[in-house]
């Protein structure tokens, strides 16, 4: 089943986070991820608001988790740590 990688982000260091974004996009694409939403308009209805929201579609939960654990993504993530507050989850879709 396909899966969605959903990230909610508050950037605290734009320069360092820019390096993350530069590396994360190709890492996600390399693992079959396709961006559906990247920082567009949103309406927060419940919970903690984060100004940046990203959704990518993967072939499966396993593919998304493999991407997250890949050396390429972990290198990107090293630039996001300390440069953002974020939540990231992978959710299996129903179709």
Automatic annotation (TrEMBL):
Transmembrane segments: none annotated. SUPFAM superfamilies: Dimeric alpha+beta barrel. InterPro entries: Dimeric_a/b-barrel (IPR011008), DUF1330 (IPR010753). Pfam families: DUF1330. It comes from the Bacteria. Coiled coil: none annotated. Residues 2-93 form the DUF1330 domain. This is DUF1330 domain-containing protein. It comes from Phaeobacter italicus. The lineage of its organism: Bacteria, Pseudomonadati, Pseudomonadota, Alphaproteobacteria, Rhodobacterales.
